[in-house]
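One record is given unchanged without comment:
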Amino acid sequence: MPKQPGENPTQEQVTAPNGVAWTRAPGGTTSGHQLLEALNGISGIYGDVPRRWNWWEEGRQRREHDRHMAVLEEWDNGAEELPPDESEARMKAWSDDFDKRYEEERRRRAQLAADTYDEERASQRLQYLRDTADAAFFGHVLRKPANAAQRDGAARREAEARASAAELLHTIGDPEQVIDKRGYLPSERRATNLGAHTDYWRHRLLREWSTKDRRQFNALLKMPPPSPDDMCSECEAPAEWHEYDISVRLFHPPPAPGSQAEKIAQLMPGWWERCPACTAYRIGHVWGGSHALPDFDGGQWVAMLPPLLRTLFTSEPPKARKKRAPKPKPLATIPPGPIDEVMARLAEAKAAHPDAEVRTGAGGVLELWNP
């Protein structure tokens, strides 16, 4: 009868959760617990975001793979060892089957998009997300408005954004059921975006900041992994960041040269890079006029950011320079000269500073100091 997982560190046989019995090879030193850990680890090494959240060092994922494989190589599960030709044939069959299933899924998605994608509804959903982010942005401003005019403007625009979002929600129905033009639901895109956020944004910045900016490095390293539900469906940022006008668009190409989009991007800095689900306040603020809140500035935006975002997306405030204490000066000085002149000036100084003491300064100058 196979021994159970974790029975003791010297066991020679372990039954995995799927019922497969593993036997340790002669000379093996790893325990049954290590085997089970390796089986669990190797299966999720490329797909489990929380597991690889802090694997930011170059080559870390490969090292984790090799570590688990080194354990598995000490154990045998009794699987038939195939001749090289047959093994190669099976691998090709597996690869062909994978390609076939991939193509079937691609066609299924394309058909789903053809049958259900509604460009107007998708556009309304994005406007709904923008309105929601706008309302949250103005809500943050209202926590500490600069003055009464700004407070009134933020309150009015928050109410307008909430009303618009409610009207759009009534029109589009459940926003989570709005298919995009590639045939994917928002929840599916969020899961993909979390992986991209981890591998191509977080890990890249941690590698960069580990040698350049320990303040930002430490803050990002402490950031807990978001859940897929926390992510934006349209870009690689957590959705909450959009409330503060922060987007992360990793795979968004620049506008085509000479296009209308390029002209707009030149007129409105930040427009092209902004996620379509993010608040559009910054663009309106740059545009000015009624789009900008009275007296709102960059300093106020920085102050309303949560500590993590403030550290990640703003420069470190300059350290206040310590004021040097003024160099002490003598009460009076008497340069060298004829004795009668020096004695007369000493008498004047004594009358003015009767408790002073006389010291000799540079060049033979007499200095009167407080005792």
Notes: The chain has four domains: 13-76, 88-116, 119-313, 332-369. The mean pLDDT is 90.
